[in-house]
Design brief:
Positive regulator of sigma-B activity. Non-phosphorylated RsbV binds to RsbW, preventing its association with sigma-B. When phosphorylated, releases RsbW, which is then free to complex with and inactivate sigma-B. Pfam families: STAS. Belongs to the anti-sigma-factor antagonist family. GO terms for molecular function: anti-sigma factor antagonist activity. The chain is an alpha/beta fold and about 110 residues long. It has a single domain, classed as STAS domain (Transcription Regulator spoIIAA). It is about 35% helix and about 35% strand. It has 4 helices and 5 strands. It has a 5-stranded mixed sheet with strand order 1-2-3-4-5. Helix 1 packs parallel to helix 2. The longest helix has 17 residues, at about 60-75. The model is unreliable at about 110-113 (pLDDT under 50).
C-alpha cells in the first residue's frame, strides 16, 4: 500500500493544494498527518485536498482529517476536500463527517448518497 502526496503552494492567494494518490490506511496515515496538519497551522491559509485518486481509506485516514480539522479551528485556517471517490465519500457520510467537513463532490450536487 502506498500514498503519494503532492503539495502546491500559491503564496498570493494563501492556498495550499494537496493532491493525494493511492491508499490511506494505518501504514500511510502518519505520512499524511505529517504533511497536512502543519499546513493547517498557517493562519488564514486555505488547504484544499484533492482526493480523486484515493482508491481506499480506513478509519485511520478519518482520524488524520479530524486532527487537521481541529487544527484549522485553532489556527484560523480552512480545509476543503475535493472529488473523493464514491466509496471514500460514503465513509465520510456514514461517520457523519459530511456534516462538519467541507466536502465538494458531484454526489452532493446530485442530492447525496
Amino acid at each position: 500500500m502506498d500514498l503519494t502526496i503532492e503539495v502546491a503552494h500559491d503564496e498570493h492567494e494563501q492556498v495550499r493544494k494537496v493532491v493525494l494518490i493511492g491508499e490511506i490506511d494505518a501504514y500511510t496515515a502518519p505520512k499524511l498527518k505529517e504533511t497536512i496538519v502543519p499546513l493547517t497551522e498557517e493562519n488564514g491559509v486555505e488547504v484544499v485536498i484533492d482526493m480523486h485518486a484515493i482508491s481506499y481509506m480506513d478509519s485511520t485516514g478519518l482520524g488524520v482529517f479530524i486532527s487537521a480539522l481541529k487544527s484549522t479551528k485553532e489556527h484560523g485556517s480552512s480545509l476543503t476536500f475535493m472529488n473523493p471517490q464514491e466509496r471514500v465519500y460514503r465513509l465520510f457520510k456514514i461517520t457523519g463527517l459530511t456534516e462538519i467537513m467541507n466536502i465538494q463532490t458531484d454526489y452532493t450536487v446530485r442530492g447525496g448518497m
